[in-house]
Amino acid sequence: MKKIEVIIKPFKLEDVKDALSKIGVPGMTVYEVKGFGRQKGHTEIYRGSEYTVDFLPKLKLEVVLPDHLVEAAIQAIGAAARTGKIGDGKIFLLPVEQAWRIRTGECGDQAL
Amino acid sequence: MNNLPKYILAIALGLLVGGAALAADTPASSPMEKAIAHMATMRVGLDTIWVMVAGILVFFMNTGFGCVESGLCRQKNTVNILAKNFIVFAIASLSFYVIGWGLMFGNGNALFGTSGLFCVSGADNSPSTGDAYQGVYKAIAWAGVPLWAKFFFQLAFAGTAATIVSGAVAERIKFSSFLIFSFILAALFYPVTGHWIWGGGWLAAKGFWDFAGSTVVHSVGGWAALAGVIALGPRVGKFGKDGKVHPIPGHNMTNVFLGVFILWVGWFGFNPGSTMAVGNGSLVAHVFVTTNMAAATGALSAMMIAWWLLGKPDFSMIANGCLAGLVAITAPCAFVSVAASLVIGLVAGALVVLAVIGFDKAKLDDPVGALSVHLVNGIWGTLALGLFAKDSVQPGTTGNGLFNGGGMTLLLHQFIGVVAVGAFTFIGASVVWFALKKLMGIRVTPEEETEGLDVGEHGNEAYPDFLTRAPGSRHS
């Protein structure tokens, strides 16, 4: 069982969600986040004075999935979230020890 | 529905009989005299409706100010700004009733009214005008409407002057000291300079003209606000140690949009309503159009100047430009041609952008641009009257200004008025602000300012379910 954490451009959410659904990923969690990488921020002007916006709005997805879907999921996310321009985001892969479904008490892959 | 004509007939008959009964109270005897008396009553009624409707529009401008100011400030201070703009009309209502009206319009000396001073209690036989008027509010006896119509309309103006201060001192002033200052402004400063100009005082006698209040209302509010801005100092974080200006963006441009449109509508009461009579409609219509045109060119020129100087057409500047045009046309709206109103607005829109940048450079922190709009353009509009006044627009009033062959006389009188009103209001307001600072403090603690005045002053939040602090946002 693995967890994928993905940072993407906000407008790419629909594409990434559709791509993951297509390969059989049943669910995911999304956060609105702000941050920067090599892209850095940009400058804006308000009433004549310039200021820098260091943290840009991004979305962070968390998906926990069975091992056999990991490869396909990473391929799907990469294809769906890519624009080719700087700031497309990152994918992180983490191990997960166990998962439980609260309603039924099921655990393991069945709980995902 | 078949009975409709009968009803109309019955109502018409009723009106006739009722009208005859009313007319029977007066000594008029012949049918012609009765008809004339009836017409006179109807004319007063018509004028009164116009004055009250215009007064409602001016009253509603408080909504506009509340929207603009809250939109241009941060969300953590929204409740505080709304509360100030809300309560300030209640305060002005009371103080203008208790003494403001008497000081402004009561018969008296060149500096202030002395008769019928308290609670609008002096003798008055309005709506009689001219030689038929008997009472102690002679300066406004030219308006042929009942006393309480005059009072309500003028009260709405006093409320506007008081609410101008709110935006300039926003995001750091203590609610309690703002209340006290507003009371003093509407009870004392506004009526005294108002008496000089509209109450038969020395500036009116000198030949200073201000149709609807570029100086009487807007400059006065602006000078009082400037004194407050100096007494308070800038908001935490506005100016860096290196002297760099850190902009503090407003939180809701939809509010700004709504507020400016409401104010634009309100100005159709503010300026055309200052005729205080419908007449044959031509002056009201003229003032409507000059008012609108100056707002339009003000918005356009602010947009172009911002685009050119700052790289992009900043919406907050466009909005300020529209208000700048409206403030500037307020004094001359009834004395200049429509073509002149275009130029007056054009200059106003450019002035407001330069003034916003200039006040920032001077380290005077005005979160909403109230000084640039009301003070700078109140002065510009008053002087513009001396430049663009055209005798043929309203013969027998201002005469011609400089650009219409009238020479420097009118411009000089306008200049004297600007300086005198400015000196009195700025010095007087500074004394009050610094006295309040000594007595009770005028500024919230730095901790409260950082956390927001909504919770600190009122225990409320404007948007309790929102994430109020975006991660890493340096302005929260």
Mean pLDDT of chain B: 92
Q: What percentage of amino acids of chain A are in beta strands?
A: 35-45%
Mean pLDDT of chain A: 93
- Overall number of domains of chain B: 1
Q: Strand arrangement, largest sheet of chain A?
A: 2-5-1-6
Q: Indicate the CATH architecture of chain B.
A: Orthogonal Bundle
CATH class of chain A: Alpha Beta
Strand content of chain B: under 5%
Descriptive account of the structure:
The complex is a heterodimer of chains A (112) and B (476). Chain A has helices spanning 13-22, 67-81; strands at residues 2-8, 29-35, 42-46, 49-53, 56-65, 89-95. Chain A has 112 residues and is α+β, with helices and mostly antiparallel strands. Chain A has one domain (2-111): Alpha-Beta Plaits. In chain A, the strands form two sheets. A four-stranded antiparallel β-sheet of chain A has the order 2-5-1-6, with helices on one face. Chain A is elongated. The model of chain A has no long low-confidence stretch (mean pLDDT 93). The longest helix of chain B has 42 residues, at 31-72. Mean pLDDT of chain B is 92; it is low at 17-24 and 468-476. In chain B, α10 crosses α11. Helix content of chain B is 65%, strand content 0%. Chain B has 15 helices and no strands. Classes of the chains: A alpha+beta (112), B mainly alpha (476). The interface between A and B is medium-sized, with 12 and 23 residues.
Can you describe this structure in just a few lines?
The complex is a heterodimer of chains A (112) and B (476). With 112 residues, chain A is an alpha+beta fold.
Which features does this protein show?
heterodimer, A: 112 residues, alpha+beta, Alpha-Beta Plaits, four-stranded antiparallel sheet, two-stranded antiparallel sheet, 37% strand, B: 476 residues, mainly alpha, Ammonium transporter fold, 65% helix, globular
